[in-house]
Amino acid sequence: LFFRDGAGNPYTLSGYKDIHDDPGWDIWSDTTTLYTRIYQGHVEAEGEVEAALYGSGILRIYLTDFLRQLTTFRVEGPTVHDRIAALHRFGRLFLGKLWDVYGRHFLEYGPF
User: Fold this and answer.
1) Residue numbers of the domain that contains 42
2) What is the DSSP code (8-state) at residue 32?
3) How many domains does the chain have?
4) 42 and 14 share a domain?
5) How confident is the model at residue 12 (pLDDT cuts 50, 70, 90)?
6) Are residues 61 and 40 part of one domain?
């Protein structure tokens, strides 16, 4: 994510989630923990290795915050069909990864 600070300096926010199935019920912590890095300048993913790291951290979201966040989702598109299709693609992306990691314990194939 490219952004600028208050003085107009460019930065890049990069993040990833470590979603894996380990002992115990940890699906919530896996999906709501984001490991982040901030780089100086606008940096593409392939350039992160040699980019100047400005900071790093871990973002966590709690259930109540997630539920509130769901009410803020906005989808834009020229038609209702396009907006629904975009939201569907997002859901498949999010739920598909969860199915790959956790759902295979129940079925060998998945709906995503």
Assistant:
1) 1-71
2) T
3) 2
4) yes
5) very high
6) yes
User: Tokens standing for 36?
Assistant: 């982040």
pLDDT at 6 over 90: yes
Amino acid at 103: G
Residues paired with 40 in a beta bridge: 11
The string of DSSP codes covering 55-83 is: EEEEEE--HHHHHHHHTT-----SSHHHH
Q: Is 8 left (phi over 0), alpha (psi -120 to 50) or beta?
A: left
**Which ranges of 1-112 would DSSP assign to H, the alpha helix?**
27-31, 63-70, 80-102
Whether 54 and 38 have beta carbons less than 8 Å apart is answered as: yes
| Same domain for 13 and 58 | yes
Strands 33-40 and 10-16: antiparallel
